[in-house]
């Protein structure tokens, strides 16, 4: 799993649909997730630390967590199926832990209100992320190619012997 942060909300140039953009810690990969208008407003409100005069849905949920002594340990965006992302809320109350199915947009909005981390499974990032820093990606690919070019069969044999000795 990779921890990600909300980079902001963008609009799709063609459909004008809102997209929440998550970035990894190195800011080299971004994960765009299409969301609804209401979810976009809620996420923007949380990013800007807006306090509505009355609690809105995600504020209410965060208030319920507090009232019942529950904490949101993290959210996990765990899969992508048929262009739909799936997430869970990882809750804790005392020693009890519970995972609750949740739309990613709602999970992100609640995580922002509770200062909880946002995690994404590596498979989801591999399938749906976009490169942010193409130059750094190319440098990494080139470094790997250079490593492979210099790799000799003897190096692999030697490494295998070292690992075998470590197991004994």
From TrEMBL:
Entry superkingdom: Bacteria
UniProt cross-references to SUPFAM superfamilies, sorted A to Z: Hypothetical protein TM0160
GO molecular function: nuclease activity
All residue ranges annotated as the BFN domain in the record: 1-132
Record InterPro entries: BFN_sf, Bi_nuclease_dom
Pfam family name, one: BFN_dom
Name of the protein: BFN domain-containing protein
Source species: Crocosphaera chwakensis CCY0110
Lineage: Bacteria, Bacillati, Cyanobacteriota, Cyanophyceae, Oscillatoriophycideae
